[in-house]
Amino acid sequence: MKHATSNSRTQSAIILAAGKGTRMKSDLPKVMHPALGRPMVEWVADAARAVGCGKVVLVIGHGADTVRGHFAGHSGIEFVMQMPQLGTGHAVDMARPVFERGALGEDVLVLCGDGPLIRARTLETLLSVHRGTGAAATLATAVIPDPTGYGRIERDAAGGFLRIVEQKDATPAQLALREVNPSYYCFRTADLFDALRRVTNQNASGEYYITDVFELLLKDGKRVSVVDAVPPEDVLSVNTPEQLAEVSGFLSSRSAPAAGARA
Length: 263
Known about the structure:
By secondary structure, this protein is an alpha/beta fold. It is 29% helix and 23% strand. The protein is globular and about 45 Å long.
């Protein structure tokens, strides 16, 4: 079922799906572990297609053949390889050749393949705010009781967005923030790839972060919008078998009371 978006602008999606998932204790690529009977990444791809993404680009790496094989019969899916893996910014930049071959959408959603709790209606809100505010980039955030492990959203005195701070790079004051980054992003495609050329790996992990793009665009004088659109119960991404079981339980309870209805 295709959900309507706010206007006639077109959109594509890039889904990060290259990770090994060491803590899953399995040879299966992380994003291919099943949540309620379907690979995690399929939930994410379906949400992107539901909001009208004409092209979904999967950034693959570990177990690439397994991911390709699963999506072999799906139209509108493309694959790019990330090997070696140098961070989320590097992963997104691997999709640059696909977008340089032709216009695949004026806007692009960037999502993580290990977040099967994603809902199409959240992406609709993200796209609506992005376009309604004329933003170069928009991110959906969540406020959760325990922000451990997530990037924190730092705001200025007036409540405006300043930056995303990864946990490894955060000060004690930043670690106390409870507004987090669940990795739901929307960019004007040209602005995204322009800024990615300027992302560096000068951080505690030595990686190229997609999250640095937002601060770069602000410094360019472009608008970055933030919408607190992700319910706390939808934030959990999967890093362990225990979290996978928890997410599957959420998906099951979500569908049980609304037989036949779609989120």
